[in-house]
Design a protein that fits this description.
By secondary structure, the chain is an all-alpha fold. It has seven helices and no strands. Helix 5 packs parallel to helix 7. The protein is globular. The two termini are about 30 Å apart.
């Protein structure tokens, strides 16, 4: 009888999945922009809408957390996962906005490669978040996200090094260094999600 009186929210997993899917949508919008740069303004608006959607999902998750007595797992881990998923979308929005603000003429091959890596990471995040109910078979997912982060780090480092090895204008060097660092930040934020998922699984193994 007492268990029936305790409010238990079962909708957390669905909201996590929606947040992960939203991050993937944002990553794909960034990647599509790198291949069709004529759609810069449309991509900027699209990612901004996704960022707003992410904020709404984060708010909903926070509200449920505040009103739920029994949660699926540790409250601090829920907050960390909410924030980490939101951070992925935030850095993607900032990356797209930087292309607009810096009036970058066209993306580089490295930018396309880095955007593709973030998409791959977000695809794995969607898969991993979908497995959180069982806490099973998640290790290959976070290992793959870490591998992709390392690949993104390598591409970013080499891209930044190449800026100073050529004859690019100093202002353009500064612009592209900022852009590459934002891409690397996107990879890092995806890795943060993997770290939190690994921590959650470790507590429930």
């Amino acid at each position: 009888m007492l268990r029936r009186l305790i409010p238990r929210e079962e909708g957390f997993y669905e909201l996590f999945e929606q947040s992960a899917a939203n991050a993937l949508d944002a990553a794909r919008a960034l990647s599509e922009l790198m291949t069709d740069y004529q759609a810069l303004e449309a991509a900027s608006l699209r990612v901004r809408d996704l960022e707003h959607k992410g904020d709404e999902l984060s708010h909903e998750l926070g509200s449920r957390l505040a009103t739920t007595f029994v949660t699926p797992f540790d409250r601090d881990d829920i907050r960390a996962l909410i924030n980490a998923l939101d951070d992925v979308v935030d850095v993607i929005e900032k990356t797209v906005d930087t292309f607009v603000l810096y009036r970058i003429a066209k993306p580089t091959g490295e930018a396309l490669q880095l955007a593709s890596i973030i998409v791959q990471q977000c695809e794995v995040i969607v898969t991993a978040v979908g497995k959180l109910r069982s806490y099973k078979e998640l290790q290959p997912d976070w290992v793959e996200i870490h591998r992709l982060e390392s690949e993104g780090d390598r591409v970013s480092r080499e891209a930044i090094a190449s800026l100073f090895a050529g004859s690019m204008d100093a202002v353009d060097i500064i612009k592209w260094k900022d852009v590459y660092e934002l891409f690397e930040g996107g990879c890092d934020r995806c890795e943060d999600v993997a770290d939190i998922i690994e921590q959650i699984v470790a507590k429930h193994a």
